[in-house]
Amino acid sequence: MPRSASSRLPGFVLAVPAWVWLTVFFVVPFLQIAWFSLGEKPGMFGTHSNAVMSLDRYAEAFSPTFFTIFRATLWMSVTGTIACLLIALPAAYFMALKVPAHRRGLLVALVMVPYWTSFLIRTIGWKVILSSEGALAGFLTDVGLVSDPHALLNTRGAVLLGLIYNYLPLMILPLYVAFDRVDSALGEASKDLGAGRVRTFFQVTLPLARPGIIAGVILVFIPMMGDYVTPAVLGGAKGTMVGSLIASQFLTAQNWALGSAMAVVLILLTMLVVVLAIALLWGVGWLVGRRSRLVIGTKSIGTKKVATA
Amino acid sequence: MSRPSGTNIALGVWTTLVFVFLFAPIIVIAIYSFNGGRLLTAWDGFSLEPFTAIVERPTVRHTVAVSLQTAVIAALLASALGTLAGMAMARFPGRWTGPFTLLLLLVSVTPEIVDGIALLPWFVTLGQDWSLLPFNNGYVRLVIGHSLFATAVVTYIVRARLVGLDASLEEASADLYARPVATFFKVTLPLVGPAVLAGGLLAFTLSLDNTVISSFINVSGTTSWPVYVLSSVRSGLKPEIAAVSTILLVFTLLVLGLVARVLKRSGSSVTDTMAVA
Questions:
Q1: Closest residue, chain A, to B2 (C-alpha)
Q2: Which of A254, B138, B217, B275 has a CA between 20 and 30 Å from the CA of residue A296?
Q3: Nearby residues of B242 by Cβ (< 8 Å), 6 or more positions away
């Protein structure tokens, strides 16, 4: 009779240390701030108190001063995500379907190099490029595009540029994987059946890459909403985001109750937008898919199981 | 295969521009690490001074040392936790895998700032209210903060590696009357070895770069390198910051090259693993 390890010891025991560790240092701390968010800041020197329970901190987080920053963060993250998608789509398409197979691995590795380089240092690199002493500011002032060399840095535009830059690799990679899995025979079949290249791209290739698009949008949008480093380095006073707001409640104002409420609102808002975006992307895909179903048959034919890289 | 058409040339040019965009700030930092001026942003002639300044300034050396020590311990811890969890997920799936996968997913998608602001009060509760003194120690706090996401990453990589391997080797070992412990150390561990190494090295680089969580749970005296850099964004960036960054960049690239080689030799897809991370 074969004796496997599972007959002696339940296998999930191996996962218990990680489970306990993540519960104690991830789940419980989060529950604690959710609890703090229902309390208040007691007097000058206290950070939090749950003596009086209320939803007042949430009302405070939605007050006009703070809500403006929530709205600005949402605007920058949505714009930044769409920009990432538009920049990454042609590049990922080219890398996956036009570059010779033996050179694709190198290109993917090159995309990952910036992503694994220190986030903070890359952002500081943009600070150097955009600074008033830099060559770019000098050039733009000489040409006459910018009147003041200080106009580049410490603006909302600089933060947006930083966001797009910092998360672009996270959009390119899933799109690349998605395009890589699209069977090129389907595209040829579409052309044989008389569809033009543009029509093939929009009705065959793009719908098949939809899971990659959804993955990329989620991977880029969520960290953008919570970014704290990019506005701190490039934003100055004008480019504040929710991350900076929450940080200042914890590190400067010492108001943990309000900071916690803001963090909870940030998470709920992010989740809401992600759900809406997925619904939208599926909806659009469903409309396009319904029209092209007769042409390509069931969509499951189009996906290869194995990704080669 | 495909003749270079107008569209393809346009796509190629676009992709080249994207790569220029991706590398621009990194190249700028590498160049400015030879800046002889007093401030990083103002170029003032070529000089090796930023590199000699590293040796002369104790703060720079101390913060880099804190970061390296933390990264080693955090990587070892995350590798241990993640390897066991990844093996359990791949070899003993059951009703528990669903909730556990959800937990890992939440750990991966939660913005770092939320981890940071949640850990700060928690360490205060543990260390000051409950008098569990280790949690007031800066190293302990940094290691814990850096281990969370890294544990999830190692778990994904180890699980992916084992799912791709046949369980028959382990079964054969059990059939040959090896005790489960012996099977684990002599069969399973060598099989997942490359994945553990790759996951551990990734955990190391993640810890080395961690800025957000570290800046919230920072204890004075054990300030890590990125937290020091972030604080000098406000007080004035010096060229030696670029110099240290250039050295760390070369170091990280060597580590990543090693990861890619190990993963390639062990047969897993590098892109899939990295995309998961």
A1: A98
A2: B275
A3: A121, A124, B29, B30, B32, B33, B35, B40, B50
Nearest to A15 among B21, B28, B85 (CB): B85
Rounded Cα–Cα distance for residues A269 and A272 (Å):
5
d(CA A204, CA B114): 40
Rounded Cα distance, B220 and B132, in Å: 19
A22 at B interface, C-beta within 8 A: yes
CA A274 to chain centre: 10
Which residue of B5, B15, B128 is the best one to mutate when testing the A interface, meaning the one whose CB has the most A CBs within 10 A? Answer: B15
Distance in Å, alpha carbon of B134 to nearest chain A alpha carbon = 14
Nearest to B22 by CA among A106, A220, A161, A223: A161
Q: Which of A48, A121, A168 to mutate: most B Cβ within 10 Å?
A: A121
Tell me the residues of chain A between 206 and 225 that have a Cβ less than 8 Å away from chain B. Answer: 218, 222-223, 225
pLDDT in tens, B25-58: 999 999 999 988 888 888 888 888 888 888 888 8
Number of neighbours of residue B58 by Cβ within 10 angstroms? 8
CB proximity under 8 Å: B 187-216 to A:
205, 208-209, 211-212, 216
Q: Euclidean distance between the first and final Cα of chain B, in Å?
A: 34
Domains, chain B, in order of start with CATH, read 58-276 (1.10.3720.10)
At position A178, the amino acid (one-letter code) is A
Give the DSSP H/E element, type plus range, for residue A214: helix A210-225
Other CB atoms within 10 Å distance of the CB of residue B230 = 23
- On the question of pLDDT at A7 being above 70, the answer is no
Taking the Cβ of residue B72 and every Cβ of chain A, the question of whether any pair is shorter than 8 Å is answered with no
Q: Which tokens hold the place of A142?
A: 């000489």
Restricting to B residues 114-153, those with a Cβ less than 8 Å away from any Cβ of A are 114-115, 117-122, 125, 144, 147-148, 151-152
By CA distance, what is B148's nearest residue in A? A22
Structure tokens at B28: 């700028």
Query: How much is the pLDDT for B4?
Result: 65
Domains of chain A listed by start with CATH number:
20-95+103-177+209-271 (1.10.3720.10)
**Does position B79 have pLDDT exceeding 90, yes or no?**
yes
Complex ipTM = 0.86
Report residue B160 CA to chain centroid gap. Answer: 18
Task: Report the b/e string of A109-131 with b at 16+ CB within 10 A.
Answer: bebbbbbbbbbbbbbbbbbbbbb
Give the mean pLDDT of A11-30.
Answer: 92
> What is the average pLDDT score of chain B?
86
Considering only the beta carbons, identify the residue of A32, A87, A309 that sits closest to B18. A87
- Please check the confidence at residue B75 and state whether its pLDDT lies above 90: yes
